[in-house]
Write a structure and sequence with these properties.
- Belongs to the flavoredoxin family.
- Pfam families: Flavin_Reduct.
- It is a single chain.
- The chain is an alpha+beta fold.
- It has eleven helices and 13 strands.
- The strands form three sheets. Strands 3-2-6-9-10-5-4 form a seven-stranded antiparallel sheet. Strands 1-11-12-13 form a four-stranded antiparallel sheet, with no helix packed on it. Strands 7-8 form a two-stranded antiparallel sheet.
- α8 packs across α11.
- The longest helix has 13 residues.
- The protein starts with 10 loop residues before the first helix and ends with a helix.
Length: about 290
């Protein structure tokens, strides 16, 4: 067994040990607005429920390790004292990951991730329509745990209204743990699916993905693709060029056969095969070969 003095290693390495060993961690998909009402949406895995009476949720937007800057979510919570915590299940995990991309201030992560913002009843931040459970909250306290990169900021949130999708309830009106299909965060790229096991989600591109809003309507409206597929397609730096698509088609006989059928559903099913293998670039090439 190795023994480590936390002060003897870098913050990034320490964070890796902490996140790799303390888990699985639930995910708070936090929706906020800034002082001017502009929406922001970002996931946090330093999160849990800490009280039932009063109902208190706590999550922690940490200072960035690389430059000690703070996140828009924290700034917004300090300014408005309101937040909506949306629960993350498997159906929206890829879009949630895409929303964690550090887009510039003013960029709407609802639009970038392809999720639907719906008005809340008692607070200004929007709810995520696709989330199975949404907690409208008032921020009661923010506790800074340090001033250096990696330091957390505990945001204490009192739940003032809960919205639950009836589809996840059992015959007694309780939340069915199989139906809600929650996901959790572990170390690295690893996630846990509560009713199945471990799976990986590649981290969003540091160069910024194009976002779901850049995906053509004929793809977004296709019944073949779900939210997770759209999240993967949006996490690419740039769409392949016409030349790249042409070379791909010439080198893949099976693709030629699918394209020659001129059946859009079959073409989309072929692209989905690549998505299921996390080969997003090839999926895009299939889709763009026959627009």
């Amino acid at each position: 067994m190795i023994t480590i003095d936390p002060k003897s290693i870098t913050t990034a390495k320490l964070q890796g040990y902490l996140q790799g060993s303390v888990g699985p961690r639930p995910i708070a998909f936090a929706s906020t607005v800034d002082a001017d009402g502009n929406p922001n949406l970002s996931p946090f895995s330093f999160f849990n429920v800490f009280s039932a009476n009063p109902p208190i949720l706590v999550f922690s937007p940490s200072r960035r390790v690389r430059d000690n800057s703070i996140k828009h979510t924290l700034i917004n919570c300090e300014a408005t004292k309101e937040v909506v915590i949306n629960v993350v299940n498997y159906d929206l995990v890829q879009q949630t990951s895409l929303a964690s991309t550090e887009y510039a201030d003013g960029v709407n992560e609802f639009i970038k991730s392809g999720l639907t913002q719906v008005p809340s009843d008692l607070v200004k931040p929007f709810r995520v329509k696709e989330s199975p459970v949404q907690f409208e909250c008032k921020v009661t306290q923010i506790i800074a745990l340090g001033e250096e990169g990696g330091a957390g900021n505990l945001v204490l949130c009192e739940v003032v209204k809960i919205h639950i999708n009836e589809a996840i309830l059992d015959e007694n009106g309780a939340i069915d743990q199989y139906k809600i299909d929650l996901v959790s965060r572990l170390g690295g790229n690893w996630y846990g699916r509560s009713n199945q096991g471990l799976f990986e989600v590649p981290k969003p591109l540091t160069t910024l993905g194009v976002g779901v809003d850049a995906i053509p309507d004929f793809v977004k409206k296709s019944p073949v693709f779900n939210g997770n597929d759209l999240g993967k397609l949006g996490n690419i730096e740039a769409l392949p060029s016409t030349e790249e698509v042409s070379i791909f088609v010439k080198e893949n006989f099976s693709i030629k056969a699918v394209l020659s059928s001129d059946d859009q559903k079959n073409i989309h099913l072929e692209a989905k095969k690549y998505l299921d293998e996390n080969d997003v670039l090839s999926a895009w090439k299939v889709l763009l070969a026959k627009k």
